[in-house]
């Protein structure tokens, strides 16, 4: 994208008013988004995201500037304008770049760009037909396919020079079930850090039937009861619980500013002793996996909580400097439009010892949340909420009937302490996480687990 | 960069290979500054630009975009379009916009980003943060920020459409986190800055602090059915979500709760909902839409009756109605009909927030709803959402409330609006909303 001589001149210009650190993040990304609705191709959207973000730091003051015009003249001009926010002089510094070796966590067999559109669209049609064929109650479905290939170049004034290619593929189905009193939806959307070989081990018909199964189940469901009760959350996307209730609060961006409820709690018991939680950016071909984070630091496996004790935060360079901690390879951004900050990669609660059956059997009355919708959290209070997409009532240790419209609310510290059974079968689910540095792909995950008491908002 | 030159070149090359073509270019520049307590936290300069090419051959259409605006890439993009056309579905209702010979556009309210040196914006943020910190030592965090943005849109096609517009606005935010006995609460004030000296920073500091302060001591409510007043900010976020159900595209795909309800009563007969992209209080105005069609204010709901969906060219042709100019579009290829600036109107006399409380007597004043993206089902209209606000007793604020959820259905909620507030003002997402009194809503909190 850019040669070392140009980048060196831009970084030196950026440092010319007294900054002690400068970094560029250049990106050239090809996106393909296809969607299929109403038995036909709804949209074909292909395009190119292209630009550069320049970050200049003096002490803890940060200037960020970005542009999609990568001509050297414009980049030097941008560096000049950005540098104007400082009023010092350049230190004596010559930048010598040292290139990092290429990462190996995201190997690709079939580049998405090498697959004809026709072949991708055929997958959508198959999924659509399977979704509709599942049951007569399914009145509509939307099938989405996406792939993207992002080439990045990250270089900084300390001599870092690193390039990476991130390829991801995802397939998503939303099914609509129509009944006399309205419509209910079901959704399933797996993805991975893979190319078109993703479909060698993902059956699109199966994905579609799963979405339709949820929609059909919910169409026949009564409203969930409201109130405080035990809640069993199943594995996979159920991990959104930890993601919202705790994960965001462990991000150094909030901890360093002391606005997270987890501030100053390292070494303390913050969860039930059954809880061990991990953020692992290195899972081969994972949806949230990166070889290097968006500051160029290699990713790693971070144990966040071990047997209930807080062990680590998710740390980026800048907030790490504020906190006196090293980066954990957790700095991420959606694109060149965002300054990077601490985020999650593949975050999950580790497997425990109970079986799903044991957990259900041990619950006289409660809610079984089989699959979850999205959620959100207020970092300052730790208050979270999320929607249950597919829920069931548990009575006398048995699943009795589907219930809809439930939402779960509580606070992170409280819910983690109340996890009283953790299952064996760990599974990850794919999501898009939105926060300060944009929307990024992230895995959530957990085994089935029980929260002894949680507020269920229903009707 | 000379965007007009690029547009002409793209059109020339595309017209040589396809029946018709359109080029759509957006560019913007912004400066955002944020003070975090007494430190500069964010200083961001941005330049964004991108363009899309749309082409037609027979009844087939294709579109692609790029942020890399260079002449060298144009041929490569036209090749992508060629591949797309080979697999495209026939779109008999789609067309480019051909302007009428003597068509005129509405005059736009004059508006631009406040033109100040970066230093002046830095001073505003620093002063606002300082004033806020000085109000009380309970302030744990203050974030004071300014965001000034300006941009242009250019659309040109083979049918003679050639329109350009520009916009600009400046927003000022003051966000505060306060602590009392280990409990933290937050508050926000927001202004659209119109010129260099119209900001009352003392007022903005006070407003954010008092909003956070009055939440201390919040607790749950007993579960039950309550009369509620929804603050205008809450109404704005609900209406933003509701707007997607009003899209003719969602309706035609069978994914809207308003399907088949045109001409029917869907809300209280005192309310009307209008989309007014020309509204003088909106941060951003438009006089032509994403497809170049002239814009005029449109009623979606009039006196409780669903009168219109949002239409773009394709959905209007499919429904057999006149073009409405509701196309929202970005060069990145997302397009569809939608809202620009929603305004709530009332057939009966509007009342101040205090009068709404008095009319309500006892009830729940909701100042915030969380989790709208997950807790509101766009297709069924069902919602179950965590809420915060105040218990109202004898027509006055009694105490703050949190840890409750409110549940219901959007259409039922619209039907139960009995009074609209007179506090209409600019809210996030560019809507001009008012508070409303609703005569019943289910609240789940503590066991009664």
Mean pLDDT of chain A: 94
Largest sheet of chain B: 6 strands, antiparallel
Shape verdict of chain A = globular
Taking all Cα atoms into account, the compactness measure Rg of chain A is: 24 Å
* Overall number of strands of chain B: 20
- Main sheet summary of chain A: 8 strands, mixed
Uncertain runs of chain B = none
Task: Give the helix/strand class of chain B.
Answer: alpha+beta
List keywords for this structure.
heterodimer, A: 459 residues, alpha+beta, 8-stranded mixed β-sheet, 6-stranded mixed β-sheet, globular, B: 448 residues, PmbA/TldD fold, 2 domains, 5-stranded mixed beta barrel, 10 helices, 20 strands
Structure description:
The complex is a heterodimer of chains A (459) and B (448). Chain A has 459 residues and is of the alpha+beta class. Chain A is built from 9 helices and 24 strands. By secondary structure, chain B is of the alpha+beta class. Chain B folds into 2 domains: 210 residues, PmbA/TldD superfamily (PmbA/TldD fold, 2-Layer Sandwich), CATH 3.30.2290; 232 residues, no CATH class. In chain B, 24% of the residues lie in helices and 38% in strands. Chain B has a 6-stranded antiparallel β-sheet with strand order 3-2-1-4-5-6. Chain B has a 5-stranded mixed β-barrel with strand order 7-14-15-16-20. In chain B, strands 10-9-8-13 form a 4-stranded antiparallel β-sheet, covered by helices on one side. In chain B, helix 3 crosses helix 4. Chain B starts with a helix and ends with a strand. The interface between A and B is large, with 72 and 69 residues.
Question: SSE layout and pairings?
Answer:
The complex is a heterodimer of chains A (459) and B (448).
Chain A: H1 4-14, E1 21-37, E2 40-58, E3 61-67, H2 72-83, E4 98-99, H3 117-133, E5 138-156, E6 160-179, E7 182-188, E8 191-192, H4 204-219, E9 222-223, E10 227-233, H5 240-245, H6 252-255, E11 277-280, E12 301-306, E13 309-310, H7 317-323, E14 331-332, E15 341-342, E16 346-349, H8 356-361, E17 365-378, E18 383-395, E19 398-404, E20 407-411, H9 412-417, E21 419-422, E22 427-435, E23 438-446, E24 449-457
Parallel strand pairs in A: 4-6, 9-19, 10-17, 16-23
Antiparallel strand pairs in A: 1-2, 1-5, 2-3, 5-6, 6-7, 6-8, 10-24, 11-12, 11-16, 12-13, 14-15, 17-18, 18-19, 18-20, 20-24, 21-24, 22-23
Helix pairs in contact in A: 1-2, 3-4
Chain B: H1 3-17, E1 20-36, E2 39-57, E3 60-66, H2 71-87, H3 118-135, E4 139-157, E5 162-180, E6 183-192, H4 201-213, E7 224-230, H5 232-245, H6 248-252, E8 271-275, E9 298-302, E10 305-306, H7 313-319, E11 327-329, E12 335-337, E13 342-346, H8 353-360, E14 363-369, H9 372-375, E15 382-393, E16 396-409, H10 410-415, E17 417-420, E18 425-426, E19 432-433, E20 436-444
Parallel strand pairs in B: 7-14
Antiparallel strand pairs in B: 1-2, 1-4, 2-3, 4-5, 5-6, 7-20, 8-9, 8-13, 9-10, 11-12, 14-15, 15-16, 16-20, 17-20, 18-19
């Amino acid at each position: 994208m850019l040669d070392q001589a140009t980048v060196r001149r831009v970084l030196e210009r950026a440092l010319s008013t007294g900054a002690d650190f400068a970094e560029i993040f250049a990106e050239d990304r090809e996106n393909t988004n296809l969607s299929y609705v109403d038995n036909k191709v709804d949209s074909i959207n292909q395009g190119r995201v292209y630009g550069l973000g320049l970050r200049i730091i003096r002490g803890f003051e940060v200037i960020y500037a970005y542009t999609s015009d990568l001509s050297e003249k414009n980049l030097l001009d941008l560096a000049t304008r950005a540098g104007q926010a400082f009023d010092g002089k350049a230190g004596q510094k010559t930048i010598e770049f040292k290139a990092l070796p290429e990462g190996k966590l995201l190997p690709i067999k079939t580049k998405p760009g090498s697959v004809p559109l026709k072949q991708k669209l055929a997958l959508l049609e198959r999924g659509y037909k399977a979704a509709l064929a599942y049951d007569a109650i399914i009145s509509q479905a939307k099938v989405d396919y996406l792939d993207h290939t992002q080439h990045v170049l990250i270089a900084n004034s300390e001599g870092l020079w690193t390039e990476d290619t991130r390829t991801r593929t995802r397939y998503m189905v939303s099914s609509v079930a129509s009944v006399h009193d309205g419509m209910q939806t079901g959704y399933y959307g797996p993805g991975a850090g893979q190319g078109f070989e993703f479909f060698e081990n993902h059956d699109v018909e199966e994905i579609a039937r799963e979405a339709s199964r949820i929609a059909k189940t919910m169409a026949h469901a009564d409203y969930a009861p409201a109130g405080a009760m035990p809640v069993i959350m199943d594995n996979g996307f159920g991990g959104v619980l930890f993601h919202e209730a705790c994960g965001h609060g462990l991000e150094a961006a909030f901890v360093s500013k002391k606005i997270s409820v987890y501030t100053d709690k390292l070494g303390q018991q913050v969860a039930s002793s059954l809880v061990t939680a991990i953020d692992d950016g290195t899972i081969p071909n994972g949806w949230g996996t990166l070889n290097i984070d968006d500051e160029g630091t290699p990713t790693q496996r971070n144990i966040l909580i071990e047997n209930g004790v807080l062990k680590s935060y998710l740390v980026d360079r800048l907030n790490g400097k504020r906190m006196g901690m090293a980066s954990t390879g957790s700095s991420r951004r959606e694109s060149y439009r965002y300054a990077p900050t601490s985020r999650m990669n593949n975050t999950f609660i580790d497997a425990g010892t109970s079986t799903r059956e044991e957990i259900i059997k041990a619950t006289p009355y409660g809610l079984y949340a089989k699959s979850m919708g999205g959620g959100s959290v207020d970092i300052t209070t730790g208050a979270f909420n999320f929607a249950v997409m597919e829920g069931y009532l548990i009575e006398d240790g048995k699943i009795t009937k589907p219930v809809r419209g439930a939402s779960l609310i509580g606070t992170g510290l409280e819910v983690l302490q109340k996890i009283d059974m953790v299952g064996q079968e760990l599974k990850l689910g794919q999501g898009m996480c939105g926060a300060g540095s944009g929307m990024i792909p992230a895995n959530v995950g957990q085994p089935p687990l029980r929260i002894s008491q949680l507020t269920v908002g229903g009707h | 960069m000379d965007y007009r030159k690029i547009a002409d070149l793209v059109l020339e090359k595309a017209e040589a290979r396809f029946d018709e073509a359109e080029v759509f270019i957006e560019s913007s520049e912004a400066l955002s500054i944020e003070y975090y307590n007494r430190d500069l936290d964010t200083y961001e300069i941005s330049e964004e630009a991108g363009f899309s090419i749309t082409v037609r051959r027979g009844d087939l259409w294709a579109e692609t975009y790029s942020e890399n605006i260079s002449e060298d890439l144009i041929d490569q993009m036209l090749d992508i379009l060629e591949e797309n056309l080979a697999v495209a579905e026939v779109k008999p209702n789609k067309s480019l916009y051909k302007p009428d010979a003597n068509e005129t556009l509405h005059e736009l309210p004059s508006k631009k980003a406040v033109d100040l040196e970066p230093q002046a914006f830095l001073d505003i943020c620093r002063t606002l943060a300082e004033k806020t910190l000085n109000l009380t030592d309970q302030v744990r965090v203050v974030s004071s920020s300014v965001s000034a943005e300006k941009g242009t849109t250019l659309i040109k096609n083979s049918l003679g459409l050639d329109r350009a517009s520009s916009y600009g606005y400046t927003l000022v935010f003051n966000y505060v986190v306060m602590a009392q006995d280990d409990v933290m609460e937050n508050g926000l004030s927001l202004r659209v800055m119109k010129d260099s000296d119209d900001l009352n920073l003392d007022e903005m500091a006070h407003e954010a602090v008092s909003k956070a302060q009055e939440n201390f001591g919040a607790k749950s409510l007993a579960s039950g059915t309550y009369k509620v007043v929804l603050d205008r900010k809450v109404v704005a976020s609900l209406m933003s979500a509701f707007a997607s159900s009003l899209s003719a595209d969602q309706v035609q795909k069978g994914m809207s709760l308003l399907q088949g309800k045109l001409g029917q009563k869907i809300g209280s007969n005192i309310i009307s909902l209008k989309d007014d992209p020309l509204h003088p209080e909106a941060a951003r105005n438009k006089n032509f839409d994403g497809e170049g069609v002239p814009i005029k204010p449109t009623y979606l709901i009039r006196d409780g009756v669903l009168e219109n969906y949002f239409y773009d060219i394709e959905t209007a042709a499919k429904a057999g109605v006149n073009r409405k100019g509701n196309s929202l579009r970005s060069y990145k290829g997302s397009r569809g009909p939608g809202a620009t600036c929603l305004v709530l109107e009332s057939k009966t006399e509007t009342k101040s927030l205090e009068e709404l409380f008095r009319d309500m007597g006892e009830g729940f004043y909701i100042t915030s709803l969380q989790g709208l993206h997950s807790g509101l089902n766009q297709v069924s209209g069902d919602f179950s959402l965590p809420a915060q606000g105040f218990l109202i007793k004898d027509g006055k604020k009694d105490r703050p409330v949190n840890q409750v959820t409110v549940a219901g259905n959007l259409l039922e909620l619209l039907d139960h609006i009995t009074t609209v507030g007179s506090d209409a003002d600019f809210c996030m997402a560019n809507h001009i909303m008012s508070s409303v009194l609703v005569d019943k809503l289910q609240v789940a909190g503590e066991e009664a």
